[in-house]
């Protein structure tokens, strides 16, 4: 099993190298001149001599291969360059905004998990009952409503009309409720449907029949065996969504003026802040790879069949 885990970790390296290569290639193929973008962000009317000097400073007059190797070395040192707008290191800017995004991510995931697990599990156990119809309705609504519109609805009802929660910003737990709910709602729709379908599938498996034949209590079968195996697709979905949430739910952060990494990325796009854009893309790729690796390891622990499959590759 240890060898299998090591192999899974080693597969991250070439994938991340490909991500860095694609990011570097797209930036160089872009019509945006980094030197020109730098002076534009600084509101400076640059001359040709100033542009040439800045290109030399950025190393843009060197061959592409040397530029890529130098960029890769800096990335390994968590050096994504200097922001054109703030003149501060991009990594410093990222780490200063990450706590707000992590806080929002944890809040939305907790809400999604606490709501979707009981609803999805009961919907699968009691097919075509009231709870099942409710889960379908909830999934349909969650998958249909755009996040920005849902966020404005929450603001209108809970902030403007009822005056229960703040409209924007951070500071207290009340500031976290509405943006977390907005992010969690589509996740609830997805996880509920995944868990319901997985429960229905596992109820047809032979291990459930054997457990009932042995006289094991139904609650033990459902809670200890069915739920543990059926939750695997939901964990997979969690791994796919975790990277997206960690790199910033851009629309939700913009709606609620949440000072996270997503808003920082939006500002970088408008200002053509190339180092920030590059740092965001690479950070997103790294977080997606790490979150999926963590999910794979969790699934190996939850589902023994995956662990046995992993041993076959040792």
UniProtKB/TrEMBL annotation:
It is a multi-pass membrane protein. Keywords: Cell membrane, Hydrolase, Ion transport, Membrane, Nickel, Nickel transport, Transmembrane, Transmembrane helix, Transport. One of its GO terms (cellular component) is plasma membrane. The keyword Cell membrane applies. It is found in: Cell membrane. Its main location: membrane. PROSITE patterns: ABC_TM1. One of its GO terms (molecular function) is nickel cation transmembrane transporter activity. The complex is composed of two ATP-binding proteins (NikD and NikE), two transmembrane proteins (NikB and NikC) and a solute-binding protein (NikA). Belongs to the binding-protein-dependent transport system permease family. OppBC subfamily. This is Nickel import system permease protein NikB. It comes from Peribacillus saganii. The lineage of its organism: Bacteria, Bacillati, Bacillota, Bacilli, Bacillales.
């Amino acid at each position: 099993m240890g060898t299998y885990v090591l192999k899974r970790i080693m597969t991250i390296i070439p994938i991340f190298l490909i991500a860095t290569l694609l990011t570097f290639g797209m930036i160089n193929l872009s019509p945006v001149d980094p030197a020109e973008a730098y002076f534009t962000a600084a509101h400076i009317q640059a001359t040709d001599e100033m542009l040439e000097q800045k290109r030399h400073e950025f190393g843009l007059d060197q061959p592409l291969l040397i530029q890529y190797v130098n960029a890769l070395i800096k990335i390994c040192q968590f050096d994504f360059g200097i922001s054109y707008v703030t003149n501060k290191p991009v990594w410093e800017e990222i780490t200063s905004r990450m706590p707000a995004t992590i806080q929002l991510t944890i809040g939305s995931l907790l809400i999604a998990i606490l709501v979707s697990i009981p609803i999805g599990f009961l919907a699968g156990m009691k097919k075509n009952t009231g709870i099942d119809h409710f889960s379908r309705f909830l999934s349909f609504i969650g998958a249909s409503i755009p996040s920005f519109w849902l966020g404005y609805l929450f603001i209108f009802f809970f902030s403007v009309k009822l005056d229960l929660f703040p409209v924007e910003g951070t500071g207290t737990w009340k500031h976290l409720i509405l943006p977390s709910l907005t992010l969690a709602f589509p996740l609830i729709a997805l996880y509920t449907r995944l868990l319901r379908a997985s429960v229905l599938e596992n109820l047809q498996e032979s291990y459930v029949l054997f457990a009932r034949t042995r006289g094991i209590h139904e609650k033990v079968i459902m809670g200890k065996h069915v739920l543990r195996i059926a939750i695997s697709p939901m964990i997979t979905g969690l791994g796919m969504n975790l990277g997206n949430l960690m790199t910033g739910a851009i629309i939700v952060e913009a709606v609620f003026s949440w000072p996270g990494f997503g808003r920082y990325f939006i500002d970088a796009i408008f200002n053509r802040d190339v180092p920030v854009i590059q740092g965001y893309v690479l950070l997103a790729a790294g977080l997606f790879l790490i979150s999926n690796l963590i999910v794979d390891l969790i699934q190996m622990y939850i589902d023994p069949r995956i662990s046995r499959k992993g041993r076959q590759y040792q």
